Amino acid sequence: MTESNPPSSYEAAGVSIERGDEATGLMRASVEATHGPQVVPNPGGFAGLYALSGLREPVLASTIDGVGTKVLVAGAVGRYDSLGADIVNHCANDVLATGATPLVFLDYVASGRLDPAVVAGVVRGAAEACRPLGISLVGGETAEMPGLYAGGDLDIVGACVGACERGDVVTGEGVEVGDVVIGLPSSGLHTNGYTLARKVVEDAGLSYASVPEGWVETVGEAYLEPHRAYVREVSALRRSVRVRGMAHVTGGGLPGNLPRALGGRGARLYEGSWEEPAVFGLIRALGKVSEDEMRRVFNLGVGFCVVVESGDAEEAMAVLRDAGSGARRIGEVVGDGGVEFVPGG
Fold it and tell me: Domain PurM-like C-terminal: where (predicted)?
């Protein structure tokens, strides 16, 4: 007699409802701690509800992004705690660059086989990043998809929505030749360029546990340094000075992102006018990466740029210093498009 096939089930196919429920339970308190009075109770939970008020002509700004192959570094190091902050801060900065205030965030975490503790750690990290920025984490999705992802794979995506008055939208159209470009420091790689950054380390046979000469941290710690948020200092700046253009420096570096804030004009930037984190020097040296390629792939120490009128530059720098930012005056706007790097600093 032929033995019958065992009963089919979601669990047998590789998806565990129980693991998903466990992850949700582990993160619930952290998520709810980000909710202020604007978050409308919604027992059904099919979508997050947020009461938008106090704006006469509200404009919504929305963005979505992922942490990319930085998750592979986290897996190699065995530490995922910074990835939630990475995606919150990345998305918040994108919204900020439009002139809007980031208000709500949603996360998406997918894996071939969910580890509830890892997923909950990522979401708790996102919630902890949301709170000081005044952002409410109003929803998310945890997906287990064997066959699409290998067992230990992890994919992390976030979406952020903000709002502002129509008259407060920053498009760069008011930028003029002679305006000053101010750079706000990055914390390192942020969430861009990791395919090249990882390859350089792997090709050199370097371990993420290695401590390069002159360093006090490992390569893995430097690579996992969280993406920095600029909401607090830029908000303070805009209360004091008219900001004509803003750029979040992500993939494409300064040449690929700063022109988006200049209304068709260009910028002259002075080499050496800002500090470059040591991680970029390591990548440049190990991989023998050309300077043009470094500038095109990485932020090289400038994570966000603001453009102000030359007469407001001194006040802008003072406001940013008072807000705790290590901002530097890094260049000025010129008539021709693109970004030119010249000796200086």
Answer: 176-340
